[in-house]
Amino acid sequence: MPDNAAMSERTRIVREPQRAVYDREVIYKILDQGFVCHVGFTADGQTYVIPTMYARVGDAIYFHGSAASRMLRGAASAFNVCVTVTLADGLVLARSVFNHSMNYRSVVALGNALIVDEPDEKLEALRAFTEKILPGRWSDARQPNEKELKATSILRLPLDEVSAKVRVGGVEDDAEDYALKVWAGIVPLRLVADAPVRDERCDAGIATPPYAENFRSLS
Questions:
Q1: 10 Å Cβ neighbour count for 50?
Q2: What would the pLDDT profile of 52-75 be if each residue is shown by its tens digit?
Q3: Which of the four, 28, 57, 74, 180, has the lowest number of CB atoms within 10 Å?
Q4: How does pLDDT run across 117-128, given as a tens digit for each residue?
């Protein structure tokens, strides 16, 4: 995909087009770093936006929910969705309120989400969810059983229509405002994990696995 061309008119960035990113490598890096996506859809004439976990596998993202959820109730084999992922990188404090901003990276993907029925693909998606959160956890924990697989619906959205929008850099004030005696700058943001907390019913003789013990900075 060309770096400077939108995949479709629907995913072309219109507002602040200088922040548009259409490069798959950058888009996939944002998706791989995020943990939660928001899925927008319409059901019974009402629009909903639902947060859920997801994982990218190749040129598609998988997300899941309860088989009895509103999102999937009455759905056929595929339905129209808008999926977004946003990473907040910093608060941009300008000299004027109007020019305050945020450094961020966001992705919007559009298309028809396909309900995954094939057991092996569903299991692979669940493995991808688990390994995305903590690499190595899938082989430690109990695998999903048949009842659990039936209770979970997995959807696949091919990344055929996707774009990113990125804001980086410092304060952008109006020329006359640079003389104001107001502090300006950036407050960097990053997601940080605290030390693992052992479940009260977890055998004290079981050592905390390295993937949990060493899981600190998520930036």
A1: 15
A2: 999 999 999 999 866 567 666 655
A3: 74
A4: 888 899 999 999
Angstrom distance (rounded) from CA 90 to CA 104: 7
CB-side exposure of 158: number of CA atoms within 13 Å?
7
Q: What are residue 158's phi and psi, to 5 degrees? A: -60, 135
CA 124, CA 55: separation in Å to the nearest integer?
Answer: 11
- Rounded CA separation 125/54 (Å): 9
Its pTM stands at 0.89
Amino acid sitting at position 159: L
From the list 196, 191, 114, the residue with the least C-alpha distance to 153 is 114
Closest CA to 113 of 166, 65, 62: 62
List Cβ neighbours of 46 (8 Å cut-off, separation of 6 or more). none
* Tokens of residue 28, six digits: 């996939």
Give the mean pLDDT of the chain: 89
Structure tokens that stand for 112 in this block: 């028809």
How far apart CA 144 and CA 136 sit, in angstroms, is: 16
Element (H, E) at 89: strand 78-93
- Nearest to 156, CA basis, from 118, 185, 213, 184: 118
Residue 39: Cβ-neighbour burial (10 angstroms; 0-12, 13-18, 19+)? buried
Given the DSSP bridges, would you call strands 60-66 and 46-57 parallel, antiparallel or unpaired?
A: antiparallel
SS3 assignment, position 200? coil
Question: What CA–CA distance (Å, rounded) separates 170 from 102?
Answer: 10
Given a contact cutoff of 8 angstroms between Cβ atoms, the answer to whether 33 and 87 are in contact is yes
